[in-house]
Amino acid sequence: AVSRVWRILFNCLWTLLWIVLWPLNVFAFFRMQRYCLQWMFRTEHIGWNPLSFSMKKFIDISPSVVCHGRAQEDEIVKSMFAEVVTESQFNWIKRPHSALQWNFDDYPVMIREWVRVQNPRILGQVPKCVRDFFRYFYLLAPVTYHFFIVLVTAVNFTCLTGYGYAKRDDKGTHFYVPKCHMLEQARKDYPEVQAERICTHLCKIFSEETMRSVGITIAFEPNHSDGSCAVRGQPSRASCCCDNALLEW
Fold it and tell me: Which of 96, 122, 130, 175 supports an S-S bond with 153, CB 3.0-4.6 Å?
């Protein structure tokens, strides 16, 4: 009963806030958040104007996307093969043109290493005690942790996903996005295969591994059939790939 009251109260207040602040969010705040994300991960050539960061620009200049259709190699791939992949370490990883070509096993491994090497601004300075707190929070109070993830997603990820709300199903309370803005934009500008990889790799796996680096357990569950997404406070589902073949496009 308490959980249901909390969800109703949160959804009412959140929806009201979303409607009232919609113009400010769309034309200013969300654009500044997207700019800050690229700044934190030291993306090249992001410019000086945060207000120019529409969803289209955010996707287009992301390292693994900007090389699409161009001769230049992905900066993430170059970094990994210069500093991480050696004959004795991760030697099964194949070298793609874009990191989005890695499969669902290799990409998380490489992004985890890339985040470690890149040491993102702000995220890289989170103290160990804070990371440990999040891990213990997840283990000791899983129900409350689900509500925490709803709040984290609402504040930090709606600049990418668009509107969502707290919802409960047989897996527990989660943040539900009826129509993901990032996937919708990717489908407008890129072929379906690349658009789905932007969703699963650039958004889902990248976000999961980044949050994992600061101790937060989170799982994005996109549904490409209807464009929805569920964000949960639990480990991401494991995948199993029979080989390390790269996606051809």
Answer: 175
DSSP state letters, the chain: -HHHHHHHHHHHHHHHHHHHHHHHIIIIIHHHHHHHHHHHTT-TT--S-GGG--HHHHHHTSHHHHTTTSSSPPHHHHHHHHHT--SSSSTT----SSGGGS-TTHHHHHHHHHHHHH--TTGGG--HHHHHHHHHHHHH-HHHHHHHHHHHHHHHTHHHH---EEEEETTEEEEEESS-HHHHHHHHHS-HHHHHHIIIIIIIIHHHHHHHHTT---EEEEETTTTEEEEESSPPPP---SS-PPPP-
Burial group, residue 101, by CB count within 10 angstroms (0-12, 13-18, 19+): buried
Position 247 in a domain: no
- Residue 145 Cα to chain centre, angstroms: 19
CA-to-CA dists, residue 237 to 104, 159, 166, 224, angstroms: 11, 24, 21, 16
Place of tokens 């996109």: 222
pLDDT of the residue at 100: 96
Indicate the pTM of the whole model. Answer: 0.93
What's the rounded Cα separation, in Å, for the pair 219 and 232?
5
How many domains is the chain built from?
Answer: 2
Query: 141-159: per-residue pLDDT in tens?
Result: 999 999 999 999 999 999 9
pLDDT digits (tens, 9 = 90+) for 177-197: 999 999 999 999 999 999 999
Strands 228-232 and 172-177, sheet pairing: antiparallel
Domain hosting 160: range is: 54-72+104-235
Is 181 inside any structural domain?
Answer: yes
